[in-house]
Structure formats: structure tokens, C-alpha cells
Design goal:
Layout (H helix, E strand, L loop, with lengths): L1 H29 L4 H34 L13 H18 L5 H14 L4 H13 L10 H4 L14
Length: 163
């Protein structure tokens, strides 16, 4: 996994540089400072300690995520045509733009399998379902029926036509 290697490769020298800076600071302070600078250096040391704590928490989180990451599954589109490839990419872009949702590989794999099933393996129907969902602002696609295309009816006694 290239991402993990890059994170680890970045994290190790960063942490070493921070530890070296910490050692240098401690040696400088331990060498004896005039009493007039003591108040100023305490503020700096406190901020530096805070920065080290945050850096340590960040490194711990990166290590945890690296350990938990899973290799993505291979995505094979059920239809190879340029039209479907474009429609599927448009669908993924729409999800990100409209709903701030990024499909990871397992979700994409399952979504493609579901789309193939509800369209009974018909590519043109699949493209139509994707377009219908996008046109209506839906965050997911579904089997479109004749009833899906009808206008909503007014119920509850309102006769003015406003909903």
C-alpha cells in the first residue's frame, strides 16, 4: 500500500526531528539561562510541550489508521461501453458534489451489483436510473417505475394546489 508507506516515511523523520529539537532545547535550557529570561522561556517551553503533545497524538492517529486500512477491491463495471463508463463517473461526481459522499471500493462494488440486478442487466435502463436519481436530487438510485414519474397528489383537504 503506497499510501501507508508514504505516511510512515513522512512520520518517522518528522518525529525524529521533533525529538532532536526537544533534546537541543533541553540542553540549551540546562546550560543555564539568566534569571531575566526565565519568565519568557517558561512560556515558550509550555507552548513547545503543547506542540509535542499534539504531534504525538497526530502520529498515534496516523499509525492507527495505517494499521486499520484495508486494500480496496477491484472495480469492474458491468457494462464496458463508453456511455455507461461516463454515466457511472458522472454518478460518482454527483454524489461527491451534491451529497459530499465518496464511494469507497466495497460500496462501489455493491452499488454496481445492485444496479445490475434492479435493471435486469440492461445497460440503457441503468443509465436511465442514474439520470433519474440525479435529476431528482436523490443520494441513491432505485428501480424506477411508472409511478415514480407521476406528479404527487394533494391530500389532507388542501384544494388550492399549493404543497
Amino acid at each position: 500500500m503506497a499510501k501507508e508507506t508514504n505516511l510512515q516515511d513522512l512520520m518517522t523523520p518528522f518525529w525524529k526531528a521533533l525529538a532532536d529539537a526537544n533534546d537541543e532545547l533541553n540542553a540549551f535550557i540546562g546550560g543555564g539561562l539568566p534569571s531575566t529570561t526565565e519568565k519568557r522561556h517558561k512560556v515558550f517551553v509550555r507552548k513547545f510541550e503543547y506542540m509535542k503533545t499534539k504531534a504525538s497524538a497526530l502520529c498515534d492517529q496516523i499509525e492507527k489508521e495505517v494499521e486499520l486500512s484495508i486494500d480496496p477491491v477491484e472495480i469492474i463495471l458491468p457494462w464496458k461501453s463508453e456511455a455507461f463508463q461516463q454515466a457511472w463517473q458522472t454518478w460518482k461526481d454527483y454524489l461527491l458534489e451534491q451529497h459530499h459522499k465518496t464511494m469507497k471500493s466495497r460500496m462501489e462494488y455493491a452499488a454496481l451489483a445492485y444496479l445490475k440486478k434492479i435493471t435486469e442487466d440492461k445497460e440503457t435502463t441503468a443509465i436511465e436510473y442514474l439520470q433519474f436519481a440525479m435529476a431528482n436530487g436523490y443520494p441513491r438510485f432505485f428501480k424506477v417505475t411508472t409511478k415514480s414519474y407521476e406528479q404527487p397528489t394533494i391530500s389532507g383537504g388542501r384544494s388550492d394546489g399549493d404543497y
